[in-house]
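Quick log. Single chain, no ligands specified.
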Amino acid sequence: MIQRLTLTVCCVFFILCSLAASLEQQSKIYKIGVSEGTGYPTSVQGFKEAMAAAGFIEGRNVEYLSGRSGLDPARQREVTEEFKDAQVDLVYSLTTPGTAIIKDVMPATTPIVFSVVTYPADSGLIESFDYSGNNLVGTSNYVELTAYIGLLKTVLPHARTLAIFRRKKEPNSKIQAANVIRLCKKNGLQTIDQPLGTVEEVRDAALALVGKVDVFMTTTDTLMQGGGEEALIKVSLDKKVPILSSNKVGIEQGSTFGPVADFYVLGKMSGEMAARILREGVPPARLQSKIQDPPLILINGRSAEALGIRIPEEKLTNFQYVK
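-> predicted structure:
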């Protein structure tokens, strides 16, 4: 009888403790640092929507601390220090350089969920997609490079020379360019690597290459996403050189075509990871980083028409034109 009573008391105590913990979690207001870098509104939108769907509602039980720092590493570090001082429960970080700073400044006990990071393992942010080995996990905007070459050969079968525009010294685009060069060589394509530092350099380099290359290609880095691709588009349309783009926004702005990852979709995927970390207490190292599979083939019909390019729709799958 005493043993049964003791067991009953223990069960009631456990239930009450669990209920108290649940109520405490529901009443807690979580602080989430959002490091936007150069600004990725659709990514942040997707992240917040996924969080809200999991019960983390902005203004109710979540407070978002936003920090937009542009391309300035010093300002990015200041934003991160602000997150650290505020003792945020989690950081949502965008881009490779931005996430590297977040990782360097934030305590190893603070979960960091990233997105718009093309090569998270190769750039040293995590050990691998399957196991980060630290307090980071997230989504990559990486697209299998075979998709680029396959699309190029389908849409522009006579193209032979490709100029790759990327940000100088950014690990993300350096890795991408090296892999593209290697794959192009295997497929009989010549490449001209263009590591650049400013938007003005992008424009000048593009003008200098007119008549020497068949296609411009952009990488997924902060220079291209921070005005570089816009400069390239102006040259493309004026000088009739198509652009094989790595960026959805770039194609929406006027680049010709490309296989892309959707930042909104990646943001939602990252938000789902963040929700699990906060709700279930799952360490980032126990989650897997992910890519969007399959990518979307996006085509700017107006630019293609202006350049006299016929899109062989009968040979393409999972494609759409920009709206």
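The CA atoms of residues 43 and 263 lie 5 Å apart.
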